[in-house]
User: Fold this.
Amino acid sequence: MMKRWTRIGAALGAMFVFACGGSQDAADTTTPAAAATEPADFGDNATPAVAPAEGRRLVGADGQVIGAPAPDFTLKDLDGKDVSLADFKGKTVVLEWFNPGCPFIQYAHGEGPLKALSSPLTGDGQVVWLAINSGKAGKQGAGLEINQAAASKWNIQHPVLLDETGSVGQAYGAKTTPHMFVISSGGAILYRGALDNAPLGKAEGEYVNYVAKALEDIGLGKPVANAETKPYGCGVKY
Amino acid sequence: MAVLLIVGACGGTQSPAEPARRAQIGEPEPDADDSSKLVHFELVADTTRVAKDQEIAIAAHFRMEPGWHIYWSNPGDSGLPTQVSVDSDAAVEVGALRYPAPRRFDLEGGIVNYGYEDAAVLPMSLVVGDVSNSVVLRGKATWLGCREEACVPGAGEATLTLPLATAEEPSAPANAELFESASSRLPVAFAELGARVSVQPTEGGSRVSIQVADSDRLELFPLDDQRVTGIMTLGGEGGARVEMTVAPSASGDLAVLAVHGSVPTRYFQIASSDIQSQGESR
Assistant:
């Protein structure tokens, strides 16, 4: 288990190096630091701790509780196949609210932090990424063909799920594209908010990828230190 | 750990999307590749000329195509804050950008945004130092232009040249209407309102209730909607009332209160100190 999580960390690291033009030196210098951190051991069936870090609110702005069970759903993917959250029990799941017509999504998948995201992660098999498009039929970025074209253009390997009624988006309180949720192997929401601190690649201060950080904390068996951030992006086109 | 450090090391080098690469996969937007056609940005001053040791007002003036809006310092549930920077080689000091009170946009799905439609004037002070030539100001702005069905990020640059006033060509007021439109919506200190405030400790922070006798409607724009939550506006006997929950970690400016009534709408800035002092006095 520990080894697997280490691989995820390495895969994420590799992904971001790739996304920003390759900086192998940085990867090498950070390896000892990662190795020095002793991950807490938790069994394959254990749910990581869900308690937020000291001083953090348990209840979100809309009354949703961080650490609460993630609402289950069944949606059709771009091949018309049913995909349920329950299919991935035992795995960490990342939900990304998606709209291929939104410039924030276009940046993230076209050249930003989600470029080529899927392959190292789904290859590992422990973190599942699901994109959910809650755009209503006829609105920007909605519709099967538009999403198929986007998945092909950006080489998205993970499922893109269509939620044209918006019911799954509303159940999660998804406000923006990209609005991100990280769900524990036991089905609890451990992180929700922004992808990173850099809308359209413009970071305020040092770049932080909140989702990568949450996955790292979960992988180490630690509570997610930053369990909620304010999402940015286009409004979900309900 | 490795992830964070690697990302941090290269985050600054990421560049925003090039318009050419921003191919629309959704419905085609006729102007989507040229955001300057949706939002026009210029710098303006409240005077035609400047003199040494003078303080004037300048502003970022945005004009939006019909139906498009840009965002307040807190964009709300989605969007991006409009940002402006001004610099100059001349001996001048540019004050902080001020955001007049926004209007609220309610989108489908309960998404609430705060921003400006049609036009926005975001003023700054400009203190003129020891100058002997025209003052050239260079402004840069970034924004997200949105309408109901689409958003387009934009960026613009503008210059403003302010010649020195002379005996033959003295300074004259300029753009009075624009600056008036901004200043009428700039919030003043909450203490000037004289509202009744009560504070109840609750699980998620302090539940704050503000009652204004001579108002029929209040509007509250949170400056930080992660720390100011649960906003409810109520009418009823004895004037209008608004309630909000302020997180224990909240500090500094919390929200802008709009007081609607028989007189023109007034705007007040509520800081955490306004809540604390009221709480203690009770």
